[in-house]
Amino acid sequence: MYQVIIIEDDPMVASINRRYVESLPGFGVAAVFKNGGDALRYLKDSDADLIILDYYTPLMNGDEFIDQLHAMGKTPSVIMVTSASDTDIVQKLLSRGVVDYLVKPFEFGRFKTALERFSALFEKLRHTRETMGQQEIDSLLCLQGSPGASRPQLAKGLNEATLSRIREFLIENPGAGYSSEQIAEQVHLSRITIRRYMNYMVETGELKSSIDYRTGGRPSIRYQWVG
User: Fold this and answer.
1) 55 with 36: CB under 8 angstroms?
2) Are 7 and 39 in contact (CB under 8 A)?
3) Model pTM?
4) Strand, helix or coil at 19?
5) Average pLDDT for residues 165-169, to the nearest whole number?
6) How far is CA 9 from CA 4, 13, 38, 101, in A?
7) Do residues 197 and 155 make contact, with C-beta atoms less than 8 angstroms apart?
8) The predicted structure's pLDDT at residue 126
9) Which residues are within 8 A (CB) of 184 and not within 5 positions of it... i.e. 6 or more apart?
10) Distance between alpha carbon 62 and the CA centroid of its chain, in Å?
11) Domains in the chain with CATH codes
């Protein structure tokens, strides 16, 4: 399992990031820190495969954290999650080992893509011979790709805040499956609205749907989170 640490000073954002990470198979959160200083102290005696790093945190920014991290001889992969979208900052970070860059607010699908890209690259490197040919190098470069290149587009008429609200309920309440009526009741939205979002999430692969014939009347469609 990939060991992930999160550096984020906003408790709500840190909690959401943690739920997102832990909803994906093969990833676990080893620790969460409010600033880079505490994270560096942790990393002196511990290792991490991946760091989810907010650029603007107390004590030091993302540049300073990466400088000190590398000075310690540590080179885990870093995904930057931040509101900083200045071109100079982005270019600087991408040239220093940051494998992906997510600008707040981001969609779960984009977050998932970032972690899946990291996992694919990590596994490719782990199972590659000591020397690589041109084809293998090209394959690695393709996996590393351009951050953000595969960002999914939100369907027309759907709202990201509403989508995140539904997502959070499903992540926090895994189960055998929920009907659109049950989800509507929990998130306080109409059944018609919920069905539109359910259809979208099934299409993007975040949910799977099944038909429940045990209702005693009209069959009910059940939706289950798959991440």
Assistant:
1) no
2) yes
3) 0.60
4) helix
5) 86
6) 16, 8, 11, 18
7) no
8) 66
9) 190, 191, 193, 194
10) 18
11) 2-144 (3.40.50.2300), 160-225 (1.10.10.10)
